TrEMBL record:
Name this protein carries in UniProt: Amino acid/amide ABC transporter membrane protein 2, HAAT family /amino acid/amide ABC transporter ATP-binding protein 1, HAAT family
ABC transporter domain ranges (all copies): 356-596
Gene3D superfamilies: P-loop containing nucleotide triphosphate hydrolases
Topology relative to the membrane: Multi-pass membrane protein
Cellular compartments annotated: Cell membrane
Length: 599
């Protein structure tokens, strides 16, 4: 629960309420304008724009995948084609009866969604790469197209399907139906990308590893997103099959999938409205010019694509955004959330049982042994520093403690639970937080958004908005206030200084409410004042036996000031484990450090 929150913090300002209502008002005005548009357009324009708006629905799905989640995909055409063919086959069998229409919609949505689940699983299995996912998306349209060619009478082979019953609308009705569907999809996407769940998509694009180390499951998010947007593409296929009365293999093909990517790039990926308007404009122009300039038009489109990618990587929408921000009305600052203390979740009373227990840990890369015979126990309230020269195996040990999918021998247990085979997000669920040597934050997100994502395992991800109140554990608030990060909450993380990024990552880790924190050189590159602040924060975190901390550090003076124990690694072996005075004053430590550079 949140502690007592001032009424001002709970009240949504009038300006915020208006900004929330603005997209709905704009959508309503757009719907009204498009509803009456067929009255003023000729038949050719109505037909072409109906198709263009359906294609724009697909562009929205490509933009969510590529522009926001960072997944370059050519496969949305395949899901669109599956939805279109499923519609044609169902309506061809049952006709445009209520049963046939209901079955057509259900099949057009469900079949691509199931295919999207399969494609998502293939694309995002553990340790897959973005390149691998893009290759899978290239293959899927080719496979679907070949299945269509092989379908015989079922799919019409290379001739496609034609002559099936369709919805009982005139061309103006299809125009209005496509317009309403496009507005609904775009509005839903707009709401999503401005919510906590939408920020998670950007976080996946920026730093997938940090998402996992905040307890999120990147693979699950990516697979669900792929399946959900495949269903939307299938719905667009349903509309297309009815509006055109014909479906053909090229509707599911690789070339169409590539065109969608080009349209999104030209319009401005990551903007939603840019791809929508860009797709409609390009498809309409193509329909008007392709008859007179069939080859020249393709050349012009290709030239424009190359020019915009080079000169305007953000697309035409990015240029419009720059012009808008140059105006006085465009220079608006987002409202900062109210910081409040959140009551920590109840935990079992600390006992003498170790939080971390390591027995016989060994790790090798081929014939090179990095760790061997590591035995270690750490209890609540301990701040254990892990020291040793370069190449001693310190970072490798931290990796093994936080990622059970690393191949190692021996046993590691967190709170009595073995972590072998567990992915980082599942280990976070056991109460482990990890801070990396190089600050690992979400560069595109604000400080507040980074902290909200750190609370996702506890608070969930809101898919329709953001709370104006940011509730954090008191320990995380202390980190923010001691480092001055409680002021630039709306500032993008990429604009923070090195020391501020280190402090932000530490605050994100503490916001997880971990029992054990793993810190890999948290003071690297910091000023003396910043190092002192971090040391004070770490001692406060472990005070009162609240949590345990393992700290990799080279500065023995810093280690002496804050540690309760020191563990020395040398050549992959644990050679000393004792009190601060005993270890720092030992002849062995002096020999080790005098024989190699501190790294």
């Amino acid at each position: 629960m949140l502690d007592t929150i001032p009424a001002a913090a709970r009240t949504v300002p009038p300006g915020r309420r208006l900004s929330r209502a603005a997209p709905i008002v704009v959508a309503a005005l757009a719907a009204a304008a498009l509803w009456i548009a067929p009255t003023f357009l000729d038949t050719f324009a109505v037909n072409v724009l109906t198709r263009s708006m359906i294609y724009a629905m697909l562009a929205v799905t490509v933009d969510l995948l590529w522009g926001f989640a960072g997944i370059l995909t050519f496969g949305q055409a395949a899901f669109f084609g599956v939805g279109a063919y499923a519609t044609a086959m169902i309506l061809g069998t049952y006709g445009a009866t209520p049963l046939g229409i209901a079955a057509g919609i259900a099949t057009a949505v469900a079949a691509p969604a199931l295919l999207g689940l399969a494609v998502g699983w293939l694309s995002f299995y553990h340790r897959s790469t973005p390149l691998y996912a893009s290759v899978i998306s290239l293959v899927v349209p080719i496979v679907v197209t070949q299945l269509i060619y092989s379908g015989g009478e079922w799919t019409g082979s290379s001739s496609g399907l034609v002559g099936f019953d369709v919805l009982p609308f005139e061309i103006e009705g299809y125009f209005r139906l496509a317009a309403l569907a496009l507005i609904a999809v775009t509005l839903a996407a707009w709401i999503l990308v401005r919510s906590d769940a939408g920020r998670a998509l950007v976080a996946l694009r920026d730093n997938e590893a940090r998402c996992a180390y905040l307890g999120l499951n990147p693979r699950r998010l990516q697979i669900r997103l792929t399946a959900a947007l495949a269903a939307v593409a299938g719905l667009a296929g349903f509309l297309f099959a009815n509006a055109s009365g014909v479906v053909a293999p090229e509707n599911a093909g690789f070339l169409f999938g590539t065109e969608l990517v080009i349209w999104v790039a030209l319009g401005g990926r990551g903007t939603l409205l840019g791809p929508v308007l860009g797709t409609i404009a390009i498809d309409y122009l193509a329909a008007n010019l392709s008859g007179d300039l069939p080859f020249l038009w393709q050349l012009l489109l290709g030239t424009a694509f190359v020019a915009i990618i080079i000169l305007l990587p953000g697309g035409l929408a990015d240029l419009a955004g720059r012009l808008w921000r140059a105006l006085p009305l465009g220079r608006t600052e987002p409202a900062a959330p109210a910081l409040v203390a959140r009551e920590a979740e109840a935990q079992a009373a600390p006992t003498d049982a170790p939080i971390l227990k390591v027995r016989g840990l060994a790790k090798a890369y081929g014939s090179l042994t990095v760790l061997e015979g590591i035995d270690l126990e750490i209890r609540a309230g301990e701040l254990v520093s892990l020291v040793g020269p370069n190449g001693a195996g310190k970072t490798t040990l931290m990796r093994c403690l936080s990622d059970g999918s690393e191949p190692f021998t021996g046993a590691i247990a967190i709170g009595g639970t073995a972590i072998a085979g567990l992915t980082p997000n599942r280990i976070v669920g056991l109460g482990v937080g990890r801070k990396f040597q190089v600050a690992s934050v979400f560069e595109s997100l604000s400080v507040a958004d980074c902290l909200r994502l750190a609370r996702a395992p506890h608070d969930g991800l809101n898919p329709v908005g953001q709370d104006p109140v940011l509730g954090l554990p008191q320990a995380a608030l202390d980190v923010l206030r001691m480092t001055g990060l409680d002021r630039p909450l709306t500032q993008p993380a990429r604009l923070l200084s090195h020391g501020q990024k280190q402090a932000l990552e530490l605050a994100m880790v503490v916001a997880l409410e971990p029992r054990l924190i793993l810190l890999d050189e948290p003071t690297a590159g910091l000023t003396k004042a910043e190092r002192t602040t971090i040391g004070t924060v770490l001692k406060a975190l472990t005070a009162g036996r609240r949590i345990a901390a393992v700290l990799v550090e080279h500065d023995l003076d810093f280690v002496r000031e804050i540690s309760s124990r020191i563990v020395v690694l040398h050549q992959g072996r644990l050679v000393l484990d004792g009190t601060v005075d005993a270890v720092v004053g030992s002849e062995l430590v002096r020999t080790i450090y005098s024989g190699g550079a501190h790294g």
